[in-house]
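Note to self: user wants both folds in one dump. Writing first protein now.
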Amino acid sequence: MKYILALDQGTTSSRAVLFNRDGRPVAAAQQEFTQHFPKPGWVEHDALEIWQTQKKVMQDVLQKAAISASQIKGIGITNQRETTVLWDRRTGQPIAPAIVWQDRRTAAFCDQLKRLSASQTAQRIQHKTGLVLDAYFSATKIAWLLDHVQGARRNAELGHLAFGTIDTWLIWQLTGGRVHATDPSNASRTLLFNLHTQAWDPALLKLFNIPASLLPNVVPSSGLLAETEPHLLGMAVPIAGLAGDQQAATFGQACFAPGMAKNTYGTGCFMLMNTGNVPMPSRNQLLTTVAWQGPHARVANKPQKGSSLATAYALEGSVFMGGATVQWLRDGLQIIQKASDVEALAASVEDTGDVYLVPAFAGLGAPDWDGQARGTLIGMTRGTSRAHIARAALEAIAWQVADVFQAMSKDSGLALKELRVDGGASQNNLLMQMQANALGVSVLRSSITETTALGAAYLAGLATGFWSGAEEITAQWAVDQTFEPQVKSAVRQAGQARWREAVNRSRAWAKE
């Protein structure tokens, strides 16, 4: 029997999942790795530890399933996006810790560029890249490393250094340094990739003072890219799928038609809506991004003129603190012992007692984009308990997603009728009911929670002929449970207005 192997490299753990032809996971392995917080607002990873954990789970999952590499038809890779690694091409060693997407050290630099209103810098960047100017994305992280690591800029100018988001770093390691590549879904998260030309933009490289020699080749999301080094799995295996985690989840949720949307509840919350073949500019502080690209992306998208490749685009709303808010309850406040405890604790009270938590620990993402906002817990009285705070934390996740959902409806001009959901926190039934109440539409939880890994597997499987096309994939998608709104519109609107009051109290707090 043949399988597709998905490598799912996330913000807190590295995972490997084997899928069969029915799109069902047959074995999985996972290993967490260390999070580093050297200064307030800084978040770092050890890129070598990421590789070691990813290699181990990749090997472990084959042992767990009792199969050999000869049964792997192809490998699909999906990854935490924006996280930035610089390494020396000569040694393969990182020159510094990886700067994680949550890291805010370059927020002040972004604010300086925004103030260049006469040159309309931020507007030009958004027009080209579809992104807002924010420390979230890779460009300012690369520039920071070049300017703060001794000898980095000179070595970069000499062509000795390589840049990669985590997908690129893994491909480099899997191929023994033979291949330096990324795909458009990851490239479009750097602030350096022009959506309209589908290439790295020379003017943006000049703006951020980044040598072009650092950058990887951009290859399709679905296509035969390379083969792994034989010693890693016992024989060479094709790498055939590649996508950032949220784009992969959108593919795994079979959101193939324009107007279909999904939300993933991971460390953050990420909503993407397929907008078809044309990048749709946002008027409501959302991001325009590449969803996927490939000759086999036969998903209601036609190849662009003069190209054999089909590119799908998406609107995206990024919420920085989703499941990480629950992790903070566990690790920071220590009011729960494990993340799953939050549902029962929150359900032990009927409401929050007018307590609101705005989890702006790393600033606010879409649609506010305030890098200086900070976490705010407001409305407490002597009667406030840990249960009220736990419920406020879950409501905060739901309200943040609702803010993005409304912005997406405005941008697209579509009245979105449903939201497909996945990710770890989507298993929390109370949260999903809160989400339906906050949105006023049906929330559909997929029968497979591994949609991010599944999307990467589908991309690889299409390239290798394991699956035939969108029709076969769509037929495999199924609903686990549907959550319908249970509150009246007036109650929902009042709750959202109060939430927005709390958000406004959190803004512009940090002074950098």
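First done. Writing the second protein, which came from a different request thread.
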Amino acid sequence: MQHVTPEFIRHSCESRNPRVARGRVALRFTVRMRDAKRGGCPRQGKKETPLSRSAGEGQGEGDRGDKGVGVPQTTKSQEPAKNPKNPNSDKTTPSSPIIYPSKTPNIGDQTMTQFDGKSVIVTGGALGIGGGCSKAFAAAGASVTIMDIDDEAGESLAAELTGQGATAQYISADAGTIEGCRDTVDAAIDAYGGVDIIINNVGIQPPSSYVDAVDLPEEAWEDIININLRSRFLMAKYAVPSMRERGGGVIISVASVQGLASMPFVSAYAASKGGDLSLTRQMSIDFAKDNIRVLSVNPGTINTPMVWKALEGTGDDIEQGLIDSAKTHPLGRIGEPEDIANVMLFLASDKASFMTGSYVNVDGGMMAVGAWAGTVGAAGSD
């Protein structure tokens, strides 16, 4: 088994955020890419665990727990990483490319109970953004159905949440199929009495799909469209009747900034994410009369193993690719799953009751930057 283990420390981060600019921030993490069928990408200070076949998303959004392409389940390290400039210092440096972490509620936090009695399904809910959303809604009092096909990661997360006093179940099902979506909805209804909220997180962007439309196999197109887009239709088809019976609901998709702008060699992925945003608008009209809100979130680059796989697919050096990606975000960092989960909590709550048919960019300001930025046109008339 061949291993490639790039390590790096970035000692400064250029940012328009004055808090970031005041400090020289050391960022350190380890990425391990394996060529084996069940390989891994554990972060520095993280415990390596069994992997799923979830493929990388180019701008870091939802996962599908497909078995075979390495996406690790990670747990928090017991020992914080030391300051690389002074190993004896008590000050620590993050073990992932993050500067100011976002926090989600803890299980058992009595102040976070706005989703008590709510039944939530998270597709691709075992790892990455999906795992972050599963944890966040469980912490906020919801009964969570984790849909994935990575049985080890899904069962582990469900056990972790229930062990902390939350209510959660894991359903092994493929979101790219009619049976998988229907069976997951049925399981949520059987266990929790219905469905109130769907987080359509599942998505794939296999490294092998980074080719133009001529070279993309028809099977790859169908797989990406089925999982990234058709699953949204199927989850609504089978869950909306239960939402109607319960007086309303919320459907939120993890779309992508690639649904708004694009890049080379992502024809199927770009089509799936553009279609996801369009479907959000359309279904919001159909189901408004039922008090069902439909929304999307467009993540920027999020710190998940899927992003590492995406960099592998584009042929970029992983170390440099992560540094360059952070620089494309005006906030000067890439995001964490918690950044997306916190927005999901808001959108699914009554505080967002007048929002439907729209999307929210959670991208560190990426989409605010014009394509001409940094070119001769940016210099004005000087």
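Dump finished. Worth passing along: Residues 218-245 form the longest helix (28 residues).
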